[in-house]
């Protein structure tokens, strides 16, 4: 997933100064962003009100879109450093290619997890003969300093652990929930859980009091800790809970994202996560020079994305919220 904004803001995120140690209800409104091809997304993180939830630092929700006569998702090769990308689908397919030579079609409820480390490039597109509907989320996880310069890697997990309750089914993308542990590689204490709720479901989901959480609503109407939510919105919940009440009004789907608050300060610009502006400048130069750092994505029919121009203004510390 790429940030296609031609004037991406430089953001300083992370740290623990602005984390709510107590439960809160903070509704994050999405921003509409064109992605490529016929796809538009609702960008929920980074947000005007909040930039991170644990190590989760970027969340796009898209669809459900009718793409019967459309190209669907078409994101040309682009670079990443200092993060993991998480591809998650409820409907449709995404063909992933990367500079490691990976070429794989990701399908609903399968985890596509790419660790950029010191540098990788990839493309994402709806394959030829794709299905009629595209619906999913693309997310980034910030890598801690100890892991951000590791060798790049790509994982695909078609079979993920599942938790169940009355009219509830949960698939564990990352981390652990109620004893079910994802095989996906995590570099910080984190959790990602996809939930399907049947009409009338009422459950109390166990959560970690030391984690901060947010809920992304994917489909249907759901009440989360007493707050009614519609699709495409995100509710930040803070920390301090041991359980999370959920109620479904009709069949619905949502994603629970959480983790230990990310203590380190990070700088985000375009598709890069670093610690200083100089690191961002070097990464941009390395990408534009077509050197060895990001490799080549083979098999994509088209040119790679050019990096936007760097801003003239210096970095301004903004913390986790603004």
Summarize the structure in words:
About 5% of the residues lie in helices and about 50% in strands. With about 325 residues, the protein is mainly β. The chain has a single domain (about 15-260), classed as Jelly Rolls, CATH 2.60.120.10. Strands 2, 14, 15, 18, 19, 20, 21, 22 and 23 form a nine-stranded antiparallel sheet that branches. A seven-stranded antiparallel sheet has the order 3-4-5-12-7-10-13, with no helix packed on it. Strand 8 and strand 9 (about 105) form a beta hairpin. The longest helix has 12 residues, at about 275-290. The protein is globular and about 55 Å long. The model has no long low-confidence stretch (mean pLDDT about 90). This is Pirin family protein. InterPro entries: Pirin, Pirin_C_dom, Pirin_N_dom, RmlC-like_jellyroll, RmlC_Cupin_sf. Belongs to the pirin family. It comes from Microtetraspora glauca.
| Termini gap | 25 Å
Write down the domain tally.
Answer: 1
Strand content: over 45%
What's the total count of β strands?
25
Helicity, in percent?
under 10%
Task: Tell me, briefly, the overall form.
Answer: globular
CATH class: Mainly Beta
Main sheet characteristics? 9 strands, antiparallel
Alpha-beta content class: mainly beta
Mean pLDDT, nearest integer?
92
Instruction: Identify the CATH homologous superfamily.
Output: Jelly Rolls
Known CATH architecture: Sandwich
User: Number of DSSP helices?
Assistant: 1
Q: Order of helices and strands, N to C?
A: EEEEEEEEEEEEEEEEEEEEEEEEEH
- CA-based gyration radius: 19 Å
In the CATH hierarchy, the third-tier topology is known as Jelly Rolls
Indicate the low-confidence ranges by residue numbers: none
Family: Belongs to the pirin family.
Organism: Microtetraspora glauca
Domain Pirin N-terminal: 40-141
Protein name: Pirin family protein
């Amino acid at each position: 997933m790429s940030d296609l904004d031609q004037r991406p803001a430089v953001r300083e995120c992370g740290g623990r100064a602005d984390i709510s140690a107590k439960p809160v209800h903070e509704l994050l409104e999405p921003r509409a962003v064109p992605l490529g091809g016929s796809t538009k997304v609702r960008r929920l993180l980074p947000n005007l009100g909040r930039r991170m939830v644990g190590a989760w630092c970027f969340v796009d929700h898209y669809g459900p879109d009718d793409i019967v006569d459309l190209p669907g998702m078409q994101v040309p090769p682009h670079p990443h450093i200092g993060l993991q990308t998480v591809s998650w689908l409820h409907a449709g397919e995404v063909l992933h290619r990367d500079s490691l030579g990976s070429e794989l079609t990701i399908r609903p409820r399968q985890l596509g997890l790419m660790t950029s480390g010191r540098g990788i490039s990839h493309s994402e597109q709806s394959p030829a003969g794709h299905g009629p509907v595209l619906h999913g989320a693309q997310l980034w996880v910030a890598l801690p300093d100890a892991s951000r310069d590791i060798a790049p890697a790509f994982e695909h997990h078609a079979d993920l652990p599942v938790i169940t309750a009355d009219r509830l089914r949960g698939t564990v993308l990352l981390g652990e929930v109620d004893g079910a542990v994802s095989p996906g590689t995590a570099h910080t204490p984190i959790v990602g859980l996809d939930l399907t709720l049947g009409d009338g479901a009422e459950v109390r989901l166990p959560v970690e009091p030391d984690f901060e959480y947010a809920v992304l609503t994917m489909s249907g109407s759901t009440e989360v800790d007493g707050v009614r939510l519609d699709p495409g919105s995100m509710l930040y919940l803070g920390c301090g809970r041991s359980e999370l009440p959920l109620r479904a009004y009709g069949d619905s789907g949502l994603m629970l994202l959480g983790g230990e608050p990310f203590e380190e300060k990070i700088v985000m610009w375009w598709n890069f996560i670093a610690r200083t502006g100089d690191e961002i400048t070097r990464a941009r130069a390395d990408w534009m020079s077509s050197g060895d750092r990001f490799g080549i994505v083979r098999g994509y029919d088209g040119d790679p994305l050019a990096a936007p121009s760097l801003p003239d203004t210096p970095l301004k510390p903004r913390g986790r919220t603004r």
